[in-house]
Amino acid sequence: MSDHAARHWDDVYSSKAADETSWYQQRPATSLRLLSDAVASTGGRPGSVVDVGAGTSSLVDELLAAGWAPVTVLDVSAAALATTRARLPEGAEVRYVVSDIVAWQPDGAFDAWHDRAVFHFLTEDAQQARYVAAATDAVRPGGVLVIGTFGPGGPEQCSGLPVARHDVASLRARFAPDFEVLAGEVEVHRTPWGSEQQFTWATLRRT
After folding, report:
1. Within a 10 A sphere around the Cβ of 173, how many other Cβ atoms?
2. 5-29 burial string, b = 16+ CB within 10 Å, else e?
3. What does the mean pLDDT of the chain come to?
4. Per-residue pLDDT band at 4 (split at 50, 70, 90)
């Protein structure tokens, strides 16, 4: 794990309330819709899922309520996952993994992979390649990957860090040949203080 990344994100999650971060959503509606549509389009149903860069998002709560299980929440910030663990009921089918995604070695196969706003922090080709390798190892053949990144018109940095912006074509090229794109769309996210951020979403199937 990158000690620098862990310290940075621990500081963010320890010093700010959830609704003081730019990525805050009261309800992760787009993520839920795309995951549901993805499994439906492949003839599957909610199963095991990993949320990469889960932070303190309520997505895990919503996934459990929608029948997804087990849910793995992965984040480089132990502070973020501690907050999530304290919020969820004891006995929930949730696995907590503190790891930098580029250092993570999956130990099982998932039906679905979700990432909102992690991949765009990987600005180097080697980091992106390691991410794709982890996703390829983690998602079973026929499983799905739903990813949201800053789009070409999105911010050039976030939380003081540079980002790489993507459109559906660049995501298709990066994840080929192990994933094929099923769908893509653009979303404008409004931050808690009213600014707008363009996101690219892509739904992919593991080949």
Report:
1. 10
2. bbebbbebbeeeebeebebbbeebe
3. 96
4. confident
State the Cα–Cα distance between residues 76 and 87, nearest whole angstrom.
Answer: 18
CB environment 123-138: b (16+ within 10 A), e (fewer) = eeeebbebbbebbbeb
Closest by Cα among 97, 28, 104 to 64: 28
Q: What does residue 132 show for φ and ψ, rounded to 5 degrees?
A: -60, -40
* DSSP line for 79-108: HHHHHHHHHSPTT-SEEEEE--GGG----S
> Distance of CA 165 to CAs 64, 94, 160, Å?
31, 31, 15
What are the pLDDT digits (tens) for 113-154? 999 999 999 999 999 999 999 999 999 999 999 999 999 999
Instruction: Report the length, in residues, of the chain.
Output: 207
Report the run of H or E that residue 32 belongs to, with start and end: helix 29-41
pTM: 0.96
CA 32 to chain centre: 12
